[in-house]
Amino acid sequence: MCFNLMLSNDQTVFTRDDRETLHKIMLARRDMRHFLANSKVDKEVLDRIMIAAHTAPSVGLMQPWRFINILDTSLREKIASQVDDEITKTANEMDHRKADFLKLKLEGIRDCAVLIAVVQAPDDGTILGRRTLPQEMALCSTACAIQNLWLAARAENIGMGWVSLFDPKYLAKLLHCPENALPIALLCLGPVKKFYVEPMLVETGWRNEKTLDSVLFNDQWLDDDGSPKFQNKQ
Amino acid sequence: MCFNLMLSNDQTVFTRDDRETLHKIMLARRDMRHFLANSKVDKEVLDRIMIAAHTAPSVGLMQPWRFINILDTSLREKIASQVDDEITKTANEMDHRKADFLKLKLEGIRDCAVLIAVVQAPDDGTILGRRTLPQEMALCSTACAIQNLWLAARAENIGMGWVSLFDPKYLAKLLHCPENALPIALLCLGPVKKFYVEPMLVETGWRNEKTLDSVLFNDQWLDDDGSPKFQNKQ
Q1: What is the pLDDT of residues A198-207, one digit of tens each?
Q2: What are phi and psi of A42, to 5 degrees?
Q3: What pTM was estimated for this model as a whole?
Q4: Is B185 helix (H, G, I), strand (E, B) or coil?
Q5: pLDDT by residue (tens digit) across A63-76?
């Protein structure tokens, strides 16, 4: 690490400036599909990003995330080719939006500097906190690690895209994963020319974002027409 | 918002200080179970925390997260009581660790200032990015929103605990959720006396953390005995 994380103290009292920095990073984070070809990510930068991923919370302290760095170029090409196939299959389920869908750039597998497959480890039998939602809670833990990774990458001015257009069984076989391990993400990481100003799917007119108010309820679920503003307990 | 987020620019070039702040927040974030009773969270603080949650990425821009703020005290008590039941059920599956398990404080439902149930919305039919892993990708999106929320809370010096000890069907009914909506988290939020120095499950001797090296592979999965150090592509 370039900076001394040992200075961090769990009792740290964060300031308004700290919060502003965090919010700026969150707001500037984008799901990137366009990368600068022939670029690279320095080792210490990637190390810091992976450390951030591993500080994520996990149910029952399972830490079920596994990260596979794809270094072999022929392996990367096999993965890219599988993603191409999956894009075609998805397009064929799109009906009237197929043409618009095929105009979108949906992955940066061949261009990105670093490609990391994220695999959900086989169940380790943890019961604490996951008796009723065992698969869901393990998966949520890995997603939290990916979100940390994503924010840490953006803070390094590195783009990241989470590609989920693949056949997980095929990918598991390609990466020699054990039975019951589940690949859930192909993370494209690397320098970008420009971060999208809005989410790419908004910029391209594919879809609009929901307002915050529309996802906040008090005490009970309400359908779209009857949602009151989220209140705070006084 | 107290600070002007409109100043944030998606092309922001973050600095070493910014990265250090982000890593400090991530490292100081804890899954809290002990809260200061009779405390509160100011409205503008909770607003900022919820804004952070809603800036999360989501597959196909689904934004499948819904947040239900539990304001009604009798509703909170019903939820607490359900969590008590689930703790008993989990304990009964614990075998030789049952006594140790029952010594752990596993939730702060009755003490925390703010209680928020997070519900996965019913499937909206999005295909983009989720043809092969539809439920998984929607769930991962909601988990990313919760991780943003968690980091934003810590940056406000507010503790948060993700309680997953509940019967999701019972909770869905209690919160009047539509069919196929799935409660995945009870988030306890509020001031704490002290943040755990290490994860509570480590502090109590329940479980050790994995090393970062043990979850990083190159090109293929390797079992525990044969994992080489994660390399960076040059």
Answers
A1: 999 999 999 9
A2: -65, 150
A3: 0.95
A4: strand
A5: 999 999 999 999 99
Q: Which chain A residue shows the shortest CA-CA distance from B147?
A: A144
Q: Which of A11, A57, A218 sits opposite B194 (nearest CB)?
A: A11
Quote the crossing angle between the two packed helices B43-54 and B134-155, to the nearest 10°. Answer: 150
Element (H, E) at A170: helix A168-174
What's the pLDDT at A232? 56
**Rounded to 5 degrees, what are φ and ψ at A139?**
-65, -40
Q: Which among A112, A91, A119 is positioned nearest to A33, based on CA atoms? A: A112
Helix (H, G, I), strand (E, B) or coil at A70: coil
Listed in sequence order, the residues at least 6 apart from B47 whose beta carbon sits closer than 8 Å to its beta carbon are A232, B1
At B77, the amino acid letter reads: E
- Classify strands A65-69 and A114-120 as parallel, antiparallel or unpaired: antiparallel
The pair phi, psi for residue A31, each rounded to 5°, is: -90, 95
Judge: B157–A132 Cβ closer than 8 Å, yes or no: no
Q: Give phi and psi for B175, each to the nearest 5.
A: -100, 10
Euclidean distance between CA atoms A164 and A183, whole angstroms: 9
How far apart are the C-alpha atoms of B49 and A19, rounded to whole Å? Answer: 10
What is the distance between the alpha carbons of residues B177 and B120, in angstroms, rounded to a whole number? 10
**Looking at chain B, which residue has its C-alpha nearest residue A101?**
B128
DSSP A31: B
Per DSSP, B31 falls in state: B
- Torsion, Cα A12 A15 A18 A23, to 10 degrees, reads 120
